[in-house]
Fold:
Amino acid sequence: MIHSAEDFTNHHDERAQISIAVGTEVQIEIVEHHLRLKSELIGLEEGEFLILKLSHSDPGGLLRSDVIRDCNIIVRYMFHGAVYGFQTSVISQIHKPTRMLFVKYPMAVEEHNVRTEPRFDCVIQAQGTSGDVTTELVITDMSAKGCRCIIMTEMTEHKDELQESINMDTTLDLSIPIPSSDETLAVSGTIRNINKDDTEMIFGVQFDEMNATARGQFDKLMKIMTSISG
Structure:
């Protein structure tokens, strides 16, 4: 993972292939000003530029001035359990109808795998509750630390409520049926990365500490998944 501008080195002359999806939460670090901002990828032109929609206010009017074009910028984001980072610079900025930055497509991207536990692919129908909204979802992979979920928002009656309640750092209560039993694992967690559009949401959940009962049920579920995966 890139921690500072010095950590980044271009390793080749061709443009990098970026593993990222529209809707991904992106952190922008403006190195010279020791400033970090949250944003969302809303579009890109491969090999040319990325478009980032800023979700924070403009501190000190920095983003409204041409000064930012001379700044070193580090972009970080999470995708499929790995943290990616690259150095870039601003091509242009837009302030209306919303604040957006156009940044150069990177020459190289660094990857840092943050998974410390084996992760198993699966297809488990489950339920998730955030605030007052409960919805059906599908768990597509799982480890001892968390899981990855998909909600097909186009097939639910609560689309608008889901768009508002399912976000980065949101708490989610999961009800996961254990195959070949009448038991249901109840576990809570925090959404750590999310990609969403008009039809679906894909997000990762980091589990909270489980009590003894939930841990026993979780171990049973993982044992079943291990046996299925061979």
Observations:
- Residues 81 and 115 are 6 Å apart (CA to CA).
